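Lecture notes, unit on protein representations.

Consider one protein chain, 279 amino acids long.
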Amino acid sequence: MSNKLIEFKNVSFRYGEDEPWVLKNVSFAIEDDEWVAIIGHNGSGKSTIAKLINGLLFPQQGEIIIAGKKVTEDTVWDIRKEVGMVFQNPDNQFVGATVQDDVAFGMENRGVSREVMIERINQTLKAVGMQDYRLTEPHRLSGGQKQRVAIASVLAISPSVLILDEATAMLDPSGRKEIMQTVSQLQDKQGLSLITITHDLQEVVQADRVIVMNNGEIWDEAVPRAIFSKKGELRKIGLDVPFVAILADALKEAGIMISQEPLNHEELLEDLWTLHSKT
């Protein structure tokens, strides 16, 4: 049976009456426990979708349903209990003098009891590997550590869906990899629905499904492997194709038959090793 957590029904949005439409008649659904990556070039509409899900914006046309409730000004505070967002710059989300103060902040605003609060601080910091930093001042942390704390702060309020809106854009490659591994583990363990919004195709390989935005419309929607196979078309809409996909194409042109579109270097190496063992 289908369990739709988020549903967009013919949603259109623009930032002003004289402005162009940022989203045009967009419809999609996200299930419970599903990981969906929303990708697109800058200005494609992907971050606007995140703000609409969280009730930071409201559509001019169409409707958005979150956990069975239509998003309106009357329901927005209930909706925000279901949705946790982590933004590009974690410094903009910090309010506490220490890591544990920051994780506690959202729970204090919701009237969570002290006993539950302490338990959740311990659980969420452990979940993101930051339990040893609970008394550290946030500004002393690295970029990757700050994003881990931002994720812990959101998890502490027990949302149904976690949205990462370009949350790794300011990190170096190793920091990006760490954060994506962390959220993958969290999604497996906690049964969260996860939405990652990015322009980096490297980040979508673990997602269950990918929605590709282009000029405010859904350009394609498929599993990562199917999206990766459309390299030429992706380049035309301003998206960088992962190196492993380019390498796989070069090998095919050289007469080396790869059995499937590789999602990462490990898959490509395994495919090449299988081919080698047969020769």
